[in-house]
Amino acid sequence: MITDPSDRLSSWQGGNCCNWEGIKCSSSGHVVVVNLRNPNPDEIMINVNEEVVSNSNNTFDFALKGTISPLLFTLNHMQHLDLSFNNFMLSKLPTEISNLTKLTYLNLSNAMFQDSITTQFSNLTSLRFLDLSCANLVPDFSSFSVSLTFPLRLDFGSLSSFISYGRISSPNLRWLEGLRDLRYLVLIGVDLSKASESFHWAKPISSLSNLMSLHLSNCNISGRIPTVELLNLTNLSTLEMSSNALTSWIPDLLSNLTTLSTLDFSGNDLHGHIPYLPQLERLSVASNPAMIINLVSMFSVPWSKLTFLDISFTGVGGTIPPSLSNSTSLTSFRADGCSIQGSIPSSITKLKKLSVLMLNDNNITGQLPVSMSSLRSLQYLSLFQNRLEGHIPISICRIPSLEYLNLEWNDLTGRLPLCILQLPKLSSLYIQRDRLNGNMPLSLFQKSRLEEISLGTSGLSLEIDDQHQPFVQTFQPKILEFTSCNMRGGIPEFFSNLTKLVVLNLSNNSLSGAIPYWLFNLPSLSILALSMNNFEGFIPPMIQLKSSRFPTIVNLARNNLQGPIPSQLLNVNVIDLTLNSFVGLIPTQIGKVPGIRSISLSGNKIHGPIPESFCRATNVLQVLDLSNNSLSGTIRRNLGNCKSLIYLNLGQNKLTGSIPKELERVTSLRYLDLSGNDFEGFFPAVIENFQDLEILKLAGNRFEGRIPKFIGDLHQLRILVLASNSFNESIPEELMKLENLQYIGLSSNNLSGPIPENLDGLKMMMKRENEATILGYAYSLKFTGAQLEIVTKGQTQWLESVYSYHTGFDVSSNTLTGKIPEKFGLLSGLPLLNLSHNNLFGLIPKTTGEMSSLESLDLSYNHFTGEIPVTLTVLDFLQHLNMSYNNLSGRIPSGPHFDTLYQDGTAYIGNKYLCGAPGGMNCSNYAPSINETVENRYDQENVLFVVVIFLGYVTGLSGLFLFLYLMKDNWRNMYWRAVDRIVLKIVNRGS
Questions:
Q1: 113 and 95 in contact (C-beta within 8 Å)?
Q2: How many angstroms separate the CA atoms of 503 and 685, rounded?
Q3: Which stretches are transmembrane (predicted)?
Q4: Smallest Cα–Cα separation from 295: which of 325, 270, 271?
Q5: 9: confidence class by pLDDT, cuts 50, 70, 90
Q6: What 3-state DSSP class applies to 934?
Q7: CA 852/CA 830 separation, integer angstroms
Q8: Of the residues 72, 180, 693, 743, which has the fewest C-beta atoms closer than 10 A?
């Protein structure tokens, strides 16, 4: 049964089928063409949430739905059959199709079939065109970015390029052997993983001697490129094998295929170099990071036919050689992420046909060539994330064909040439993250035809010159990104007429007033980001967004908004209301929103329990941040249904009870913060199941008992904060084996015993990070970062952002005993060490001076003895030192930097034998020979003294008894009677 939303089949009535829509007949009256292709197929794509969305403006779905009638395959004179872009409900490929032996054209692509190919097509020996594709290409977003609340570069380069729903597989390709007339074979998305396990899997293809175009992209093919088999295809002009797992090199022998004009091996694991293939017109080897491409060598020979070259994300390095200009036919050159250095050669302006130049994410320096204006055909210029400097040349305004300009993330200075806004075809302008200056009236943009504008953090100030300026009908942008543009006042009224606006980002400005309600109902709006402004007042109870290629986001964080949290969120993937003044309960409906992936309500005034509606069985929630509120009650057991959660923050509330066992099902968790509540019980056993956990914060609760040994099995752990609880027993040695651990916070507990001796496993603390990476998780075009409270340099600091260099070891305020392990010297990347307020004793090891990154060292309130090691004076980064209230002795060591620390002596107070400390010994009366050997000698002398006394005591007693033994009985009796009288007198006096 077929349903037909487009009403295409309404003409299929009456006896003359040759008049039906989609049907063509031969002169003899036989049906030779059946074309039921969807006339308005949706442009299908996957957004960053890996959700299938449509980018089509179609109001209706025109696809046929249901299963195909077998009667269709009785038309045995049919030569052309097209069923593409319909929805046949994951049904199997019709076996009756083998009856259509006269077919020359068969297109079943993207029709939602799901089956394994065996012999269904073996009889179709007349076929010249066969398309069984199971997927549509996702549009290329690799050059686009949206900066929201954090300076994090997010692009779409890592997204899967295909949608694999309704997938067809083929265990082998023997069914191709009889199709000798095939010219075009398109198997995009067909699963050939099983077939490619055979070394000669492509042999059936080699029999297709007439084949001109072969498309095997996204087929899960692994192993080598089937060179021998391809060389038999002497008519082949197009070969596409992108997005597979090919692991060989590109064979030089492909140059023997003289008809080959298009070659696409992008998205594989190829290595080696690009062979000389002078016959090529289009070549793509993008996203093969193991490939090494020498552009100087490559263009030392002519590529006279080459029009398209994409080497993005391969190993290039070096500079762009002037010889590139010898390829005068080049129209598109893409080399993103290739570590290219040097400047753009002026000779590139000789490429008069060049229409696309993409050199993003490289190390290109120098200025934009003024002569670039001679590239009269240039339509697409993208140079983001390089090190370009100087002014944007006015000559760029003399490129009339320019449609897309992206100069983001460079060091460009000066003013933006206003003539750029008047380029007749320019639709996209991206210049965020530069160092420009000057004011720009918003009205200037209204006079342009720009559809995508991104000026965020460029240095430009955007002036709302007329709050009520009239709307210009020709100005209908899709993207407005004005982050950090010094905007003031309210949101202009003319924004209400921007019916095509998909992304509006006005974050980090000084905008004020109420957010107008109409803004939440713009018909195309998908992303609304107004964070870090001065907005106040209420927001509407219902917010509805429109699906697009982006996830849907409402970000109103860090304003002065108040009132209740909106209860109706329609088509919202991400909502962030952090740091406002919202009050009341969390609406129960918010947890039921289909497709919601992130809920951030931190830092408000909401109270009450966590709603039971959170985490229904069908949820896709990744981030839940309810921290810094006044929530009460317990953690609901149904949170265990949130199996997609990577970030859970319930810290700083009034939650009680224990951690429910059901939470163990959330095995994808990477961030867990339960600190600052009233949880109790032993260390939560469910944490053992979180094998991907990177950040664990349980501080400020009432947990007790020992820290379990399984903590050493959480190999991804980077931050561990268990401070201010009642954990006891010793620090588990397994903790010191975590190679990724960068911060240990165990202060203010009841831990006892020694600090584990073996610290070799703490690899992250053994090196000083040269390149800082920020800890957090990117999801749905938004970033959620880690936060951390640390005690460093004698003060408590709150880190809004945690970087990989924020390492520390804090076990202060416990009852630890023993000595400082010598192996602390291995932790040369550690800036913070706090062992204060314990019962540690012994000498301070000299190896402490090998901790070259130390900035804060606190050993106060312990029982350390001996001298302060001279090795500490070489710690150039040391800014805070506290050795007070110990039993240190000797002189305070001296050094150029060390002498500048605490000249008032407060770092050494409470050490009465320390020469020069407040209340300590007078240096002029102190012999310089006292050092750590004094303590050793003192210990030796004490031992010798005890031995001598003991021997004397034994000798005296034995001598006395020997004397008494030799005496006569009456003398012995007289002695003991005298002793009795003396003892009796002592007892009487005592009483």
A1: no
A2: 44
A3: 943-967
A4: 325
A5: confident
A6: helix
A7: 8
A8: 180
**pLDDT interval class at 947 (50, 70, 90):** very low
Has residue 192 got a pLDDT over 60?
Answer: yes
Pairwise CA distance, residues 406 & 432, whole Å: 9
CB atoms within 10 A of CB 984: 10
DSSP state of 186: E
Last residue of a domain, one of 246, 279, 307: 246
Mean residue pLDDT of the chain comes to 86
- The pLDDT of residue 979 is 46
Cα(498)–Cα(506) distance, integer angstroms: 15
* Contacting residues for 945 by C-beta, under 8 A, at least 6 apart: none
Q: What is the CATH number of the domain that holds 715?
A: 3.80.10.10
* CA quadruple 42, 47, 52, 57: dihedral, nearest 10: -30
Nearest 5 degrees, angle CA 398-CA 403-CA 407? 80
Query: CB-side exposure of 63: number of CA atoms within 13 Å?
Result: 18
- Per-residue confidence (pLDDT) for residue 14, from 0 to 100: 80
C-alpha 407 chain-centroid distance? 24
Q: How far is it, in rounded angstroms, from Cα 110 to Cα 165?
A: 9
- Is 500 part of a structural domain of the chain? no
Query: Residue 301 phi/psi, 5° resolution?
Result: -120, 155
Which residue type occupies 818? G
Measure Cα distances from 828 to 696, 742, 831, 875, 878 in Å.
Answer: 24, 12, 8, 11, 13
CB burial of residue 199 (10 Å; 0-12, 13-18, 19+): exposed
Final residue before a domain boundary, out of 884, 915, 946 = 915
776 strand-pairing partners: 785
Report how far residue 817's alpha carbon sits from residue 678's, in angstroms, rounded to the nearest whole number.
29
Q: Which two tokens stand for residue 22?
A: 């989609």
* Nearest one of 338, 244, 242 to 284, comparing CA atoms: 242
Going by DSSP bridges, is the β-strand pair 308-310/332-334 parallel, antiparallel, or unpaired? parallel
The closest alpha carbon to 124, from 152, 145, 150, 94, belongs to 94
Residue with tokens 């077998």: 70
Tokens encoding 93: 């490929």
3-class DSSP assignment, residue 695? strand
Residue 563 structure tokens: 């009132």
CB atoms within 10 A of CB 900: 10
> Domain of 211?
1-146+157-246
Tell how strand 788-792 and strand 795-799 pair up: antiparallel
Torsion angle (degrees, nearest 10) of CA 392, 397, 403, 407: 0
Neighbouring C-beta atoms of residue 356, cutoff 10 Å:
18
Segment holding 582, helix H or strand E: strand 581-584
- With a cut of 60, say whether residue 607 has pLDDT above it: yes
Number of domains the chain contains: 2
Q: CA nearest 164: which of 135, 133, 199, 194?
A: 135
Q: Residue written as tokens 């009667």?
A: 71
Structural tokens at position 38: 């969807």
Q: Which pLDDT band holds residue 788 (cuts at 50, 70, 90)?
A: confident
Q: Among the listed ranges 107-116, 535-544, 864-873, which one has the minimum average pLDDT value? A: 107-116
Cβ 4 vs Cβ 12: under 8 Å: no
Q: In the block, which residue shows the tokens 């015993």? A: 753
Residue 969 lies in a domain: no
Q: Rounded distance, CA 866 to CA 939, Å? A: 12
Give yes or no for residue 830 having a pLDDT over 50.
yes
What is the DSSP-derived secondary structure letter of residue 165?
S
Strand partners, 309: 283, 333
How many CB atoms within 10 Å of residue 292? 14
* Most confident region among 10-24, 51-65, 554-568 by mean pLDDT: 554-568
CA distance 375 to 390: 20
Q: What is the pLDDT of residue 54?
A: 53
Residue-level pLDDT at 8:
83
Tokens of 374: 């001679």
The answer to the question of residue 450 being in a domain is no
Residue 515 CB-density burial (10 A; 0-12 exposed, 13-18 middle, 19+ buried): buried
Mean pLDDT calculated for residue range 116-143: 76
